[in-house]
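#onboarding

Welcome to the new folks! Below is a worked example of what a typical request in this channel looks like: someone posts a single protein sequence, and someone else replies with the predicted structure as tokens. Don't worry about understanding the tokens yet, we'll cover that in week two.

Example request:
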Amino acid sequence: MKTCRLLVLSMLLPSWVYPHGDLIPAHGGLITEGKNITVELVTQPDMTRVYLSEHGTPIDSSAASGELILLSGGKKSQIPLAPAGYNALSGPGVNPEPNAKAVVRVNVPDVGKEQIRFALE
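Example response:
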């Protein structure tokens, strides 16, 4: 009887959810998946790039807009991001201190808005 209850209960519970694939950064940055958009953040002293994709497929960013909010060394910086290439947004370079935090906000027409958080090392 106990086994029968466990069997019925296990059939009622949802099955395991598997991701669409591994999140492997294609450009050497940090990558995080939001609801609709996967964002890869690449920070360099001379340029900041944000690459956009949807389940591994690059998203056209020609009409997209974005912003990088950087919390580093007790200071908050807001960096505008503009289209740069097919699936990228670009802005001025940053040199974050260790343990800095970043928030990337993007708005892609026909795909949606995302706010993605990163912990920089």
